[in-house]
Amino acid sequence: MHRQFIPAIAAMFMAAATPSFAEIAPIPAQKNWVDAKRQVTLNDGLTVSYVEMGPPDGQPILLLHGYTDNSRSWSLLAPHLDGRRLIAMDLRGHGDSDAPICCYGIDSLASDVNAFMEALGIEQADVVGHSLGSMTAATLAAYHPEKVDELVLISTSAYLPKEAGDWLWDNVPALQRPIDPDGEFMMNWYWNPTPVDEGFLKRERTESAAAPEVTWMGVLRSLGLTDWSRIAGRIKAPTMILWGDQDSLFDATSQDHIKTVLPDAKYGTYAGHGHNMFWEIPQQVGADITQFLGQ
């Protein structure tokens, strides 16, 4: 064989043997969600699970879920964030990520997210957070402004309102384990003022009920000491805040406060919808997020 043909033939074989890294990762079906999770170990030894969807070369959106939820929380919204690389984490203690004894404050969670981005080689991303995830996202944006391009805070507050905190303290420490995913507390915990797909909610309740006690109590104890308004001035990313006016955890007073904390943020209210409005009306919320991130 002539020498000049050898490199060309070798390149052909290599191309055939190498997988295409441009292949779009599909959004897993609900029944396949757990099997679609990948894992990465952070620089401190914590192993974190996540689901990646969309084109791997797309602009990344990092998705951070709420208290006792996991990456599945984004499964209804993901189809409406088309064309973007979506990376949905399981925060520490949630889903299939490690659940260490300590620590569950939003500073520790934000540190995990920063290390997660480093582990995946993500220099900068748009970050979308819900509830606890929104507090974590805001903290990340304040501590590491170079990492956050644009910021979306869904059902957020700078602090845990007293009424919500009292309800949680009256119920969470008293939960009997194993927690019944269809018991009164869990049904209230996942209450929504308008219908949400029950197949999705059943899996959410089951996985949330299985979260270890260290997660339930670790987050609750930390939230009682949380007020990230003191670092909000360090947030440089353009920010959008979304809230449902039937939110049973973060009340209207907390929203008046957040408007003073982030006065330049774009603010949107969904009348008749609750804390999980992105489950109730994912198409509308997805369109609003997409429009904001595309500006």
UniProtKB/TrEMBL annotation:
Domain AB hydrolase-1: residue ranges: 60-280
Coiled coil: none
Signal peptide positions (record): 1-22
Protein name: Alpha/beta hydrolase
Any GO molecular function: hydrolase activity
Organism for this UniProt entry: Paracoccus onchidii
Keywords assigned: Hydrolase, Signal
Gene3D superfamilies in the cross-refs: alpha/beta hydrolase
